[in-house]
């Protein structure tokens, strides 16, 4: 963890629209024995219930989903542009079929309480699950905007995670 220093969520200077939407991030969950990571470009950061939070939206067929369900904590981490290929791989292959660590060269790192992320990150948000809920058709207000994303009936599960620590290079 020595590359990193701890900052508070309010010190994050990045624009969240470009950080999440354009640069992409990795949602990583599990423990030292087994964990999985996947690329995300939908989600957000903000304040809820008086706490700094991330919002992540994960489809149930992702291998990472099982790890997120099992664990109390997860990380959302961001990488320099040179890792675009690694993130593309983590967003197109499943950990069920591919060893993503071997395939990308990402080096696993763990917080003191064993939350996984990767050494090459430039920014790591360590999160504790506060709330999860499956999106559903009954709640849709703008069908034109939303329904085309769910032709496979694979509604995302929304996770609200409290940002409990932030590591940055
Ligand atoms: C740029 C990009 C963004 C993605 N964003 C999400 C997302 O927000 N939620 C999601 O469920 N899948 C998203 N995916 C798809 C998963 O990353 C992809 O299905 C991945 O292979 C799942 O890996 P896993 O089965 O090992 O968990 C995204 C993929 C890419 C390339």
Quick overview:
This protein is α+β, with helices and mostly antiparallel strands and 169 residues long. The chain is built from five helices and ten strands, in the order E-H-E-E-E-E-H-E-H-H-E-E-E-H-E. Flavin mononucleotide is lined by residues 24, 36, 38-43, 57-59, 62-64, 88, 91-96, 156.
CATH superfamily: Electron Transport, Fmn-binding Protein, Chain A
How many domains? The number is 1
Average residue pLDDT: 97
* Helix count from the secondary structure assignment: 5
Helix content: 10-25%
Q: List each distinct ligand once.
A: flavin mononucleotide
Q: Any idea what the shape is? A: globular
- Main sheet record: 8 strands, antiparallel
Structural class: alpha+beta
**H and E string:** EHEEEEHEHHEEEHE
* Secondary structure tally: strands: 10
The CATH architecture would be: Roll
| Unreliably modeled segments | none
Kindly, what is the distance between the CA atoms of the first and last residues, rounded to a whole number of angstroms? Answer: 10 Å
CATH topology: Pnp Oxidase, Chain A
CATH class bucket: Mainly Beta
Query: Per DSSP, what share of the residues sits in E-state strands of 2 or more residues?
Result: 35-45%
Radius of gyration over all CA atoms, rounded: 15 Å
């Amino acid at each position: 963890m020595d590359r990193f220093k701890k900052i508070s969520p309010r010190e994050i200077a990045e624009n969240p629209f470009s950080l999440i939407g354009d640069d992409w991030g990795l949602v990583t969950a599990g423990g030292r024995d087994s964990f999985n990571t996947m690329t995300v470009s939908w989600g957000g950061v903000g304040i809820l219930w008086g706490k700094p939070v991330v919002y992540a939206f994960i489809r149930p067929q992702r291998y990472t989903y099982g790890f997120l369900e099992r664990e109390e904590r997860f990380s959302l981490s961001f990488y320099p542009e040179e890792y675009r290929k690694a993130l593309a791989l983590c967003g197109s292959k499943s950990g069920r079929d591919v060893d993503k660590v071997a395939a990308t060269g990402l080096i696993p790192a763990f917080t003191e309480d064993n939350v996984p992320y990767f050494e090459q990150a430039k920014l790591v948000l360590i999160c504790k699950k506060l709330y999860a809920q499956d999106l559903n058709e009954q709640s849709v207000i703008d069908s034109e905007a939303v329904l085309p994303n769910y032709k496979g009936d694979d509604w995302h599960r929304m996770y609200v995670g409290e940002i409990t620590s932030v590591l940055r290079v």
